[in-house]
Design goal:
Length: about 60
């Protein structure tokens, strides 16, 4: 695993924050909330994939089948 995933998560966070602020300034609070939730779901799916890989590596390390 490299540092690329941290940069990807940070880029998604910055992008979502900018879009959310633009939508809030244009009185579209409902869509801004949905955009924030979508960003959160995207990041959570990335992290869940990494956690799954971690558990697979631990299983392989201790020969747990």
């Amino acid at each position: 695993m490299s540092i690329d995933i941290i940069f990807k998560i940070a880029a998604i966070g910055i992008l979502i924050a900018v879009v959310t602020q633009i939508l809030k300034k244009s009185d579209r609070d409902d869509i801004a909330t949905l955009v924030g939730l979508v960003g959160l779901i995207i990041v959570i799916t990335m992290v869940i994939g990494m956690i799954s890989d971690l558990f697979e590596n631990i299983k392989g390390l201790f020969f747990l089948y």
